[in-house]
Protein backbone atom coordinates (compact mmCIF):
# COMPACT_ATOMS: atom_id res chain seq x y z
CA UNK A 1 0.00 0.00 0.00
CA UNK A 2 2.77 2.35 1.08
CA UNK A 3 4.72 1.45 -2.03
CA UNK A 4 1.70 2.20 -4.22
CA UNK A 5 1.28 5.62 -2.57
CA UNK A 6 4.92 6.46 -3.10
CA UNK A 7 4.69 5.32 -6.69
CA UNK A 8 1.62 7.46 -7.28
CA UNK A 9 3.39 10.45 -5.75
CA UNK A 10 6.46 9.96 -7.87
CA UNK A 11 4.39 9.61 -11.03
CA UNK A 12 2.37 12.72 -10.30
CA UNK A 13 4.95 15.30 -11.43
CA UNK A 14 5.58 13.29 -14.58
CA UNK A 15 1.86 13.32 -15.32
CA UNK A 16 1.69 17.06 -14.72
CA UNK A 17 4.67 17.83 -16.87
CA UNK A 18 3.27 15.52 -19.53
CA UNK A 19 0.03 17.47 -19.37
CA UNK A 20 1.84 20.81 -19.71
CA UNK A 21 4.09 19.48 -22.48
CA UNK A 22 1.08 18.36 -24.44
CA UNK A 23 -0.32 21.90 -24.61
CA UNK A 24 0.93 23.63 -27.74
CA UNK A 25 0.75 27.35 -28.41
CA UNK A 26 0.92 28.81 -31.91
CA UNK A 27 2.67 32.18 -31.77
CA UNK A 28 2.52 34.62 -34.70
CA UNK A 29 4.53 37.86 -34.63
CA UNK A 30 4.03 40.71 -37.12
CA UNK A 31 7.54 41.06 -38.54
CA UNK A 32 11.06 39.79 -38.22
CA UNK A 33 12.52 43.04 -39.51
CA UNK A 34 11.82 45.37 -36.58
CA UNK A 35 14.14 44.55 -33.65
CA UNK A 36 11.35 44.87 -31.12
CA UNK A 37 9.26 42.12 -32.69
CA UNK A 38 12.15 39.86 -33.56
CA UNK A 39 13.31 39.78 -29.95
CA UNK A 40 9.76 39.55 -28.73
CA UNK A 41 8.98 36.42 -30.78
CA UNK A 42 11.92 34.44 -29.48
CA UNK A 43 11.40 35.86 -25.98
CA UNK A 44 7.82 34.70 -25.68
CA UNK A 45 8.72 31.34 -27.20
CA UNK A 46 11.43 30.85 -24.60
CA UNK A 47 9.18 31.85 -21.70
CA UNK A 48 6.40 29.55 -22.82
CA UNK A 49 8.87 26.67 -23.16
CA UNK A 50 10.34 27.43 -19.74
CA UNK A 51 6.84 27.03 -18.38
CA UNK A 52 6.38 23.64 -19.96
CA UNK A 53 4.42 24.52 -23.09
CA UNK A 54 5.21 23.55 -26.65
CA UNK A 55 5.49 26.41 -29.13
CA UNK A 56 5.14 26.82 -32.88
CA UNK A 57 6.58 30.26 -33.69
CA UNK A 58 5.99 32.20 -36.90
CA UNK A 59 6.98 35.68 -38.05
CA UNK A 60 4.78 37.24 -40.71
CA UNK A 61 7.68 38.11 -43.02
CA UNK A 62 8.20 41.83 -43.35
CA UNK A 63 4.76 42.99 -42.15
CA UNK A 64 2.97 40.79 -44.67
CA UNK A 65 -0.74 40.79 -43.80
CA UNK A 66 -1.76 38.03 -46.20
CA UNK A 67 1.07 35.81 -44.96
CA UNK A 68 -0.10 36.40 -41.40
CA UNK A 69 -3.65 35.44 -42.37
CA UNK A 70 -2.38 32.19 -43.92
CA UNK A 71 -0.23 31.40 -40.88
CA UNK A 72 -3.21 31.86 -38.58
CA UNK A 73 -5.42 29.65 -40.73
CA UNK A 74 -2.77 26.95 -40.89
CA UNK A 75 -2.25 26.95 -37.15
CA UNK A 76 -6.02 26.93 -36.53
CA UNK A 77 -6.42 23.91 -38.79
CA UNK A 78 -3.64 22.05 -36.99
CA UNK A 79 -5.17 19.69 -34.44
CA UNK A 80 -2.00 19.89 -32.29
CA UNK A 81 -2.49 23.58 -31.58
CA UNK A 82 -4.32 24.39 -28.34
CA UNK A 83 -4.13 28.20 -28.26
CA UNK A 84 -2.92 31.11 -30.38
CA UNK A 85 -0.89 34.17 -29.40
CA UNK A 86 -1.02 36.81 -32.14
CA UNK A 87 0.85 40.09 -32.54
CA UNK A 88 -1.19 41.49 -35.41
CA UNK A 89 -0.10 43.71 -38.28
CA UNK A 90 -3.52 45.02 -39.24
CA UNK A 91 -5.72 44.29 -36.23
CA UNK A 92 -8.81 44.66 -38.35
CA UNK A 93 -7.79 42.18 -41.04
CA UNK A 94 -7.98 38.92 -39.10
CA UNK A 95 -11.69 38.30 -38.74
CA UNK A 96 -11.87 35.81 -41.58
CA UNK A 97 -8.53 34.20 -40.73
CA UNK A 98 -9.78 33.63 -37.18
CA UNK A 99 -13.10 32.08 -38.22
CA UNK A 100 -11.75 28.53 -37.90
CA UNK A 101 -10.30 29.30 -34.47
CA UNK A 102 -13.66 30.70 -33.51
CA UNK A 103 -15.64 27.70 -34.68
CA UNK A 104 -13.20 25.32 -32.93
CA UNK A 105 -13.31 27.50 -29.80
CA UNK A 106 -9.52 27.73 -30.00
CA UNK A 107 -8.48 30.38 -27.42
CA UNK A 108 -6.75 33.42 -28.91
CA UNK A 109 -4.57 35.93 -27.07
CA UNK A 110 -4.15 39.31 -28.74
CA UNK A 111 -0.53 40.21 -28.10
CA UNK A 112 0.36 43.88 -27.52
CA UNK A 113 -1.83 45.03 -30.43
CA UNK A 114 -5.59 44.73 -30.31
CA UNK A 115 -7.29 42.44 -32.82
CA UNK A 116 -10.56 44.12 -33.75
CA UNK A 117 -13.86 43.26 -35.41
CA UNK A 118 -14.13 39.69 -34.11
CA UNK A 119 -15.20 37.96 -30.91
CA UNK A 120 -12.72 35.15 -31.60
CA UNK A 121 -10.27 36.83 -29.20
CA UNK A 122 -10.20 35.53 -25.63
CA UNK A 123 -7.69 37.80 -23.89
CA UNK A 124 -5.65 40.92 -24.60
CA UNK A 125 -2.14 41.22 -23.09
CA UNK A 126 -0.66 44.66 -23.65
CA UNK A 127 0.76 47.82 -22.11
CA UNK A 128 -1.23 50.79 -20.89
CA UNK A 129 -1.19 52.41 -24.31
CA UNK A 130 -2.98 55.56 -23.21
CA UNK A 131 -0.37 56.05 -20.52
CA UNK A 132 2.38 55.81 -23.16
CA UNK A 133 0.83 58.75 -25.04
CA UNK A 134 0.36 60.72 -21.84
CA UNK A 135 4.00 60.30 -20.88
CA UNK A 136 5.13 61.42 -24.35
CA UNK A 137 2.84 64.46 -24.49
CA UNK A 138 3.69 65.58 -20.97
CA UNK A 139 7.40 65.13 -21.64
CA UNK A 140 7.24 67.58 -24.55
CA UNK A 141 5.44 70.15 -22.41
CA UNK A 142 7.86 69.73 -19.51
CA UNK A 143 10.88 70.18 -21.78
CA UNK A 144 9.57 72.94 -24.04
CA UNK A 145 7.57 75.08 -21.60
CA UNK A 146 5.48 76.53 -24.43
CA UNK A 147 3.56 79.73 -23.74
CA UNK A 148 1.63 82.11 -25.93
CA UNK A 149 4.42 84.68 -25.45
CA UNK A 150 7.13 82.16 -26.20
CA UNK A 151 5.56 79.64 -28.63
CA UNK A 152 7.37 76.51 -29.69
CA UNK A 153 7.29 74.70 -33.04
CA UNK A 154 6.51 71.00 -33.02
CA UNK A 155 5.73 68.35 -35.61
CA UNK A 156 3.63 65.26 -35.12
CA UNK A 157 4.20 61.72 -36.35
CA UNK A 158 1.62 58.96 -36.21
CA UNK A 159 2.41 55.27 -36.74
CA UNK A 160 0.52 52.83 -38.92
CA UNK A 161 -3.17 53.58 -39.40
CA UNK A 162 -4.04 49.87 -39.15
CA UNK A 163 -2.60 49.54 -35.62
CA UNK A 164 -5.20 50.49 -33.04
CA UNK A 165 -2.52 50.95 -30.37
CA UNK A 166 -1.50 54.19 -31.95
CA UNK A 167 -4.92 55.69 -31.55
CA UNK A 168 -4.46 55.29 -27.80
CA UNK A 169 -0.95 56.80 -27.91
CA UNK A 170 -2.12 59.67 -30.11
CA UNK A 171 -5.37 60.51 -28.36
CA UNK A 172 -3.80 60.66 -24.92
CA UNK A 173 -0.79 62.66 -26.12
CA UNK A 174 -3.12 65.08 -27.91
CA UNK A 175 -5.27 65.49 -24.78
CA UNK A 176 -2.19 67.16 -23.36
CA UNK A 177 -0.87 68.95 -26.46
CA UNK A 178 -4.09 70.17 -28.07
CA UNK A 179 -4.90 72.96 -25.60
CA UNK A 180 -1.43 74.40 -26.25
CA UNK A 181 -1.93 74.08 -30.01
CA UNK A 182 -5.34 75.75 -29.73
CA UNK A 183 -3.92 78.65 -27.75
CA UNK A 184 -0.98 79.11 -30.11
CA UNK A 185 1.62 78.16 -27.49
CA UNK A 186 2.53 75.16 -29.66
CA UNK A 187 2.62 75.64 -33.42
CA UNK A 188 2.60 72.84 -36.00
CA UNK A 189 4.00 74.72 -38.97
CA UNK A 190 3.43 71.93 -41.49
CA UNK A 191 -0.26 72.15 -40.58
CA UNK A 192 -0.38 68.36 -40.40
CA UNK A 193 -1.92 67.15 -37.17
CA UNK A 194 -4.48 64.39 -37.77
CA UNK A 195 -3.57 60.68 -38.06
CA UNK A 196 -4.55 60.79 -41.72
CA UNK A 197 -2.03 63.54 -42.38
CA UNK A 198 0.81 62.35 -40.15
CA UNK A 199 0.83 58.54 -40.40
CA UNK A 200 3.77 56.41 -41.43
CA UNK A 201 2.53 53.23 -43.16
CA UNK A 202 3.74 50.00 -41.57
CA UNK A 203 5.66 51.95 -38.91
CA UNK A 204 8.51 52.00 -41.43
CA UNK A 205 11.70 53.71 -40.40
CA UNK A 206 12.59 54.67 -43.98
CA UNK A 207 9.19 56.30 -44.51
CA UNK A 208 9.52 58.25 -41.26
CA UNK A 209 12.86 59.45 -42.50
CA UNK A 210 11.34 60.50 -45.83
CA UNK A 211 8.43 62.32 -44.17
CA UNK A 212 10.87 64.23 -41.95
CA UNK A 213 12.82 65.26 -45.03
CA UNK A 214 9.67 66.56 -46.72
CA UNK A 215 8.61 68.53 -43.63
CA UNK A 216 12.02 70.19 -43.32
CA UNK A 217 11.82 71.26 -46.94
CA UNK A 218 8.23 72.44 -46.96
CA UNK A 219 8.40 74.44 -43.76
CA UNK A 220 11.99 75.59 -44.13
CA UNK A 221 13.16 74.27 -40.78
CA UNK A 222 16.94 74.44 -40.46
CA UNK A 223 19.68 73.36 -38.09
CA UNK A 224 21.68 76.50 -38.72
CA UNK A 225 19.35 79.26 -39.71
CA UNK A 226 15.85 78.70 -41.02
CA UNK A 227 12.84 78.04 -38.85
CA UNK A 228 13.58 76.51 -35.46
CA UNK A 229 12.03 73.10 -34.85
CA UNK A 230 11.64 72.60 -31.11
CA UNK A 231 9.95 69.23 -30.66
CA UNK A 232 8.65 66.12 -32.36
CA UNK A 233 5.94 63.84 -31.05
CA UNK A 234 7.08 60.47 -32.30
CA UNK A 235 5.10 57.51 -30.97
CA UNK A 236 7.82 54.86 -31.27
CA UNK A 237 11.56 54.36 -31.57
CA UNK A 238 11.29 52.80 -35.02
CA UNK A 239 10.03 56.17 -36.29
CA UNK A 240 12.34 58.27 -34.12
CA UNK A 241 15.28 56.38 -35.58
CA UNK A 242 14.31 57.43 -39.13
CA UNK A 243 13.56 61.00 -38.03
CA UNK A 244 16.96 61.29 -36.35
CA UNK A 245 18.68 59.84 -39.41
CA UNK A 246 17.29 62.70 -41.52
CA UNK A 247 17.97 65.38 -38.94
CA UNK A 248 21.59 64.28 -38.56
CA UNK A 249 21.98 64.33 -42.31
CA UNK A 250 20.65 67.90 -42.34
CA UNK A 251 23.22 69.07 -39.80
CA UNK A 252 21.36 68.73 -36.51
CA UNK A 253 23.52 67.85 -33.51
CA UNK A 254 22.71 67.04 -29.88
CA UNK A 255 22.92 70.75 -29.13
CA UNK A 256 20.23 71.88 -31.59
CA UNK A 257 18.16 68.79 -32.28
CA UNK A 258 14.47 69.11 -31.34
CA UNK A 259 13.10 67.24 -28.32
CA UNK A 260 12.14 63.86 -29.80
CA UNK A 261 10.00 61.27 -28.03
CA UNK A 262 9.85 57.51 -28.58
CA UNK A 263 8.81 54.17 -27.14
CA UNK A 264 10.20 50.62 -26.82
CA UNK A 265 13.68 51.35 -25.47
CA UNK A 266 15.28 49.69 -28.49
CA UNK A 267 19.08 49.42 -28.54
CA UNK A 268 19.18 52.19 -31.17
CA UNK A 269 16.99 54.46 -29.06
CA UNK A 270 19.02 53.90 -25.91
CA UNK A 271 22.12 54.85 -27.87
CA UNK A 272 20.36 57.94 -29.26
CA UNK A 273 19.27 58.96 -25.77
CA UNK A 274 22.79 58.40 -24.49
CA UNK A 275 24.27 60.56 -27.26
CA UNK A 276 21.60 63.26 -26.86
CA UNK A 277 19.81 62.80 -30.19
CA UNK A 278 16.60 61.41 -28.71
CA UNK A 279 15.22 62.95 -25.53
CA UNK A 280 13.27 60.01 -24.18
CA UNK A 281 11.91 56.56 -24.82
CA UNK A 282 9.54 54.29 -22.96
CA UNK A 283 10.53 50.98 -21.46
CA UNK A 284 7.91 48.30 -21.80
CA UNK A 285 9.14 45.32 -19.80
CA UNK A 286 9.04 42.21 -21.94
CA UNK A 287 9.07 40.14 -18.77
CA UNK A 288 5.89 41.79 -17.53
CA UNK A 289 4.13 41.22 -20.85
CA UNK A 290 5.33 37.64 -21.05
CA UNK A 291 4.24 36.95 -17.48
CA UNK A 292 0.76 38.13 -18.41
CA UNK A 293 0.75 35.87 -21.49
CA UNK A 294 2.02 32.86 -19.53
CA UNK A 295 -0.68 33.40 -16.93
CA UNK A 296 -3.31 33.52 -19.68
CA UNK A 297 -1.99 30.38 -21.37
CA UNK A 298 -1.75 28.58 -18.06
CA UNK A 299 -5.31 29.51 -17.18
CA UNK A 300 -6.57 28.41 -20.57
CA UNK A 301 -4.73 25.09 -20.31
CA UNK A 302 -6.20 24.41 -16.89
CA UNK A 303 -9.68 25.69 -17.71
CA UNK A 304 -9.48 28.62 -15.29
CA UNK A 305 -10.00 32.36 -15.68
CA UNK A 306 -6.81 34.39 -16.23
CA UNK A 307 -5.67 37.09 -13.88
CA UNK A 308 -6.87 40.14 -15.83
CA UNK A 309 -6.81 43.71 -14.50
CA UNK A 310 -8.93 45.61 -17.03
CA UNK A 311 -12.29 44.86 -18.60
CA UNK A 312 -13.37 48.31 -19.77
CA UNK A 313 -10.59 50.20 -21.56
CA UNK A 314 -10.14 48.11 -24.66
CA UNK A 315 -13.17 47.50 -26.84
CA UNK A 316 -12.36 45.66 -30.04
CA UNK A 317 -15.49 46.76 -31.86
CA UNK A 318 -17.34 43.60 -30.85
CA UNK A 319 -16.70 43.33 -27.12
CA UNK A 320 -14.88 44.84 -24.17
CA UNK A 321 -11.69 42.85 -23.90
CA UNK A 322 -10.56 40.96 -20.83
CA UNK A 323 -7.15 42.61 -20.73
CA UNK A 324 -3.94 42.83 -18.81
CA UNK A 325 -2.23 46.14 -19.59
CA UNK A 326 1.28 46.31 -18.11
CA UNK A 327 2.85 49.55 -16.92
CA UNK A 328 5.16 51.56 -19.23
CA UNK A 329 8.08 53.53 -17.82
CA UNK A 330 9.70 56.79 -18.96
CA UNK A 331 13.39 56.55 -19.78
CA UNK A 332 15.57 59.60 -20.35
CA UNK A 333 19.17 60.46 -19.66
CA UNK A 334 18.54 60.62 -15.93
CA UNK A 335 17.66 56.93 -15.57
CA UNK A 336 19.08 55.47 -18.77
CA UNK A 337 21.88 53.68 -16.93
CA UNK A 338 19.57 51.02 -15.55
CA UNK A 339 18.91 49.68 -19.03
CA UNK A 340 22.49 49.78 -20.32
C1 LIG B 1 3.59 48.80 -30.35
C2 LIG B 1 4.83 49.62 -30.17
C3 LIG B 1 5.68 49.52 -31.42
C4 LIG B 1 4.88 49.84 -32.65
C5 LIG B 1 5.69 49.61 -33.90
C6 LIG B 1 2.89 49.23 -31.60
O1 LIG B 1 1.74 48.47 -31.76
O2 LIG B 1 2.75 48.93 -29.22
O3 LIG B 1 5.53 49.16 -29.05
O4 LIG B 1 6.72 50.44 -31.36
O5 LIG B 1 3.75 49.01 -32.69
O6 LIG B 1 6.08 48.29 -34.00
Q: Main sheet? A: 6 strands, parallel
Average predicted local confidence, pLDDT:
94
As a whole number of angstroms, the C-alpha radius of gyration is: 23 Å
Low-confidence stretches are 1-20
Q: End-to-end span in angstroms?
A: 58 Å
* Shape assignment: elongated
Helical segment tally?
Answer: 11
β-strand percent reads 5-15%
State the total count of DSSP E strands: 12
Helices, strands, pairings?
Layout (H helix, E strand, L loop, with lengths): L1 H20 L2 E6 L5 H16 L3 E6 L5 H13 L5 E4 L12 H6 L3 E4 L11 E5 L1 H16 L7 E5 L8 H19 L2 E2 L7 H4 L6 H15 L11 E3 L3 H13 L9 E2 L6 H9 L4 E4 L2 H16 L21 E4 L2 E4 L8
Parallel strand pairs: 1-2, 1-3, 3-4, 4-5, 5-11, 6-7, 6-8, 8-9
Antiparallel strand pairs: 10-12
The site of beta-D-glucopyranose (BGC) has 12 residues, from loops.
Amino acid sequence: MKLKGTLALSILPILFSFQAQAFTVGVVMPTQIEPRWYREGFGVEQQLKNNGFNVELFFSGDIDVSLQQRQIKRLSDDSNIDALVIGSIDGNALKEALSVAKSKKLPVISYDRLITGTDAVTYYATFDNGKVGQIQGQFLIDKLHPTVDDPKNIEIFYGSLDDKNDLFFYEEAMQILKPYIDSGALVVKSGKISPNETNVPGWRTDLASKRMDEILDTVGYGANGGVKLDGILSPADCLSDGIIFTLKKKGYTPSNIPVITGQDATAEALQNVKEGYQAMTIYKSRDDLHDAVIDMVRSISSGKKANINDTTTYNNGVKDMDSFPCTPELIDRSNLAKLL
